[in-house]
UniProtKB/TrEMBL annotation, chains A, B:
Belongs to the histidinol dehydrogenase family. It holds the Pfam family Histidinol_dh. This is Histidinol dehydrogenase. It comes from Paenibacillus glacialis. NAD(+) binds at Y122, Q186, N209. The lineage of its organism: Bacteria, Bacillati, Bacillota, Bacilli, Bacillales. It catalyses: L-histidinol + 2 NAD(+) + H2O = L-histidine + 2 NADH + 3 H(+). The keyword Metal-binding applies. Zn(2+) binds at Q254, H257, D356, H415.
Length: 433, 433
């Protein structure tokens, strides 16, 4: 792993907006589903997933869900159940109440907080079918109180293998029981506009390939969508108190995701930098995904030696990484200085996979430097707020003239008159004060 | 105003994505500002705002801000100060604390809530320069704790009149003192990428014309942006206990905004429908903006007579209006049934302009049916969250095997090894349990 002097690193990588052909294909699919409903949905499922289904076969049956449990190891069920419980506990802490503020004049102002009514979660097929992502998308919605959570996922390779049973178990543990075997842009369009078999949703979330990403962008506005994730990143800020073997393993766990993933070590110690570089090389050679991890380390990995932890923190804040590990003496003393990081892992035992799978916080975290202004997925992503104004007669009489002043200044006489008609009827005339 | 039977109304109107020429112009401007900085900013300001400025003249001086107070009426200052105070009080109620959850095994999980560091607010020039919008954009950011709030607004007509003093007073009352006299797509690009004179921001908000909207879309990703507002809407749900003159005035106050604005009355009473229709016609004839309001009422206005209040509520929930007034006996008893509405005004004295200008809740509210899944602007729009994980050694020893199980199931051996290297060093070996 390269040790490089401090310089203008940038974690931002190009966002894939698809080719013109991909965009045209997606637009056509979305249009067809919108117009033709199930007919188009079944046609595209046969075309792209090579699976012939009837409308009645789209939905996964309770029997299939139950049968999935018999196809997975008990140790997996134990682990996914424990993870789901932790994730649920953490997200429960984020729940908020509607509130009202009673004014002395009898007026009531407030904010009503409600869950979205129906949410769709996309789960990719094949090797990208991650049970952990099912939990991370579904549980926040469920904790928010969303009454209808629906999942879509491709029907399986050539319709033979069916849906991955691990995905079905994760869905069941997370509390989803409405699952449709459709994928790709056609599944996104079906969730957005509805078909005879699938009722439309208010929001669509979950990862997918470029067609899924383009389809989400295409239907945005008709429904809400989550943000589209870029390649994953980690920055480790460590000093000589850290174990180079631990840090190297954490850097590699990020690098193995994807050739575009980025793993960066920031340290004030040249000796630690060198020791970690050696460890990365040693461990990399033993990794099954060494080709991917190696490309990531080569192209987007770096060790930056800084003058001090404080300088390291300013590098971190500039990079605004998705994941940050702070592995120094007394890591908590630096947390207050971290302005930009999606998730912060503190101390030697908070390895990133602890958060990816198990501890409770969400693993869907802003990438590509966007932690500067955005946040990990949480319960807030599945609620909506309504303002509430109950104005008393006394409040209107008291403040009406000021409201009219502001409206008239903006040239909106109709606004002023909506107040004036009330003041007049209540026996007062606007006296300009 | 047309009385129509219940049918498939839809408040959605076409979103303006601009012409290809407008898109090309905006892309060129953004590119030039990004590359040339101030030089391009000054050039475009001269070209589009017909105002020749030097870099030193871009920023509004403290003297200008002070002088603005002498150019506005004391009654305006009084009203805007009172409005700012109410808006601040309401938004203060939305502030949230970072939190930590201490686990029995010594682990600490939490969510760190921080304000964005620097926010830019766009304020249009000319007739669309609304002091109330300055308050509604700036105050939530200020309450969130954003340390740097910067405003941009066109330099004025031909550079002669300068910036509207009412806007400057509103900015000062809201607490902004960094103001630049630039507008259009060039101002948005300067906020997003920075120039020699204007430091880049993390988020851009505020209304503007099509060029401003397209520029915000263009820079999104480099910075966050607010949502782009559609035409304004009101739905009034009223029964015979309401005053037709009040309801008509409220409908017209919405209609006068814009020919695309929509005003809809939903009522179970044919008599009330007819009385309100007559009142709308009477009051419309007296309105200065009767051409605009008349076109809005004609094209996007309607009175829908329903069987019952309950049926009316289902119409409301389907329309998901930006503004909803409930003017019936005991309006509070229906609030729990309102699933979709951006702002809810209850009772005869809660005329929409009360909320537009004064009461405290934000007047930037989701339009075009998006109240189904989005919310009025509030303090949450100016914060970001970071997850925090401090895992104890005990927790890792206890849970490590389950984390490895989940990682290995997903084919991410590097993730498993990041845990395993720690378990091994701590004198334990993964025993598969």
């Amino acid at each position: 792993m390269k040790i490089v002097p401090i310089q203008e690193f940038d974690l931002k990588r190009e966002v894939d907006y698809g080719t013109p052909e991909q965009n045209a294909t997606v637009k056509q699919i979305v249009r067809d589903i919108k117009v033709e409903g199930d007919a188009a949905l079944l046609r595209y499922t046969e075309k792209y997933d090579r699976t012939a289904l009837s409308s009645e076969q789209l939905r996964v049956t309770p029997e299939e869900l139950k049968a999935a449990y018999e196809r997975v190891e008990p140790s997996f069920v134990k682990a996914i159940t424990a993870a789901a419980s932790n994730i649920r506990s953490f997200h429960m802490r984020q729940k908020r109440n509607s509130w009202m503020d009673m004014q002395p004049d009898g007026s009531i102002l407030g904010q009503i907080i409600r869950p979205l009514k129906r949410v769709g979660v996309y789960v990719p097929g094949g090797k990208a079918a991650y049970p952990s992502s099912v939990l991370m998308n579904v549980i926040p919605a469920q904790v928010a109180g969303v009454p209808e959570i629906v999942m879509v996922t491709p029907p399986g390779t050539n319709g033979k293998e069916g849906i991955d049973p691990y995905i079905l178990v994760a869905a069941a543990e997370a509390g989803v029981n409405e699952i449709y075997r459709v994928g790709g842009a056609q599944a996104i369009a079906a969730l957005a506009y509805g078909t005879e078999s699938i009722a439309p949703v208010d929001k669509i979330c979950g990862p997918g390939n470029i067609y899924v990403a383009l389809a989400k962008r295409e239907v945005y506005g008709a429904v809400d969508i989550d943000s589209i994730a870029g390649p994953s990143e980690i920055v480790v800020l460590a000093d000589e108190s850290a174990d180079p073997a631990y840090v190297a393993a954490d850097l590699l766990s990020q690098a193995e995701h994807d050739e575009m993933a980025s793993a960066i070590l920031v340290t004030p110690s040249q000796a630690f930098a060198e020791a970690t570089s050696v460890e990365v090389a040693r461990q990399l050679a033993l990794l099954p995904r060494r080709d991917i991890a190696g490309a990531s380390i080569e192209n987007y990995g770096a060790i930056i030696v800084v003058e001090s932890i404080e300088e390291g923190i300013s590098v971190v804040n500039r990079l605004a990484p998705e994941h940050l590990e702070i592995v120094v003496e007394d890591p908590m003393s630096y947390v207050g200085s971290i302005e930009n990081a999606g998730a912060i892992f503190l101390g030697p035992y908070s390895s990133e996979p602890v958060g990816d799978y198990f501890a409770g916080p969400n693993h869907i975290i802003p990438t590509n430097g966007t932690a500067r202004f955005s946040s990990p997925v949480d319960v807030d992503d599945f609620i909506k707020k309504s303002s509430m104004i109950y104005y008393s007669k006394e409040a209107l009489l008291q403040n009406g003239a000021m409201i009219m002043e502001l409206a008239r200044h903006e040239g909106l006489e109709g606004h002023a008159r909506a107040i004036e008609v009330r003041l007049e009827k209540e026996g007062r005339v606007n006296n300009g004060q």
